[in-house]
């Protein structure tokens, strides 16, 4: 697996904390629960896979994402 994390420079430095790139991540599970940390993430998906948000009770997909999306603070 490739994992790179680096700070932005130039004009991005005032607005972006970290750039993260990873490739080849294959977890042994199909659903992953992520604990919110208060950050907002702009995610660019480069591997062609669709990502999903799951219902906490039924574990059925509620919403699917591909290409680019925002993850983080949300309001119902």
Structure characterization notes:
The protein is mainly β and 76 residues long. The protein has strands spanning 2-6, 19-23, 41-44, 51-54, 61-65, 68-71. The protein has one domain (2-71). The protein has a two-stranded antiparallel sheet with strand order 1-2. The protein has a two-stranded antiparallel sheet with strand order 3-6. It has a two-stranded antiparallel ribbon with strand order 4-5. A hairpin with a 6-residue loop joins strand 4 (51-54) and strand 5 (61-65). It is globular. The relative contact order is 0.21.
Q: Which features does this protein show?
A:
single chain; 76 residues; two-stranded antiparallel ribbon; 6 strands; 36% strand
Count of domain modules? 1
Oligomer state of the chains in this structure: single chain
What is the helix/strand order? Answer: EEEEEE
Overall, the morphology is globular
Give a short account of the largest sheet. Answer: 2 strands, antiparallel
- Separate helix tally: 0
Uncertain stretches: none
The end-to-end span amounts to 35 Å
How many DSSP-defined strands? 6
Looking across the biggest beta sheet, what order are the strands in? 1-2
- Give the helix level as a range of percent: under 10%
Based on helices, strands and strand pairing, what is the structural class? mainly beta
Give average pLDDT, whole number.
89
Tell me the fraction of residues in β-strands, as a range: 35-45%
Radius of gyration: 14 Å
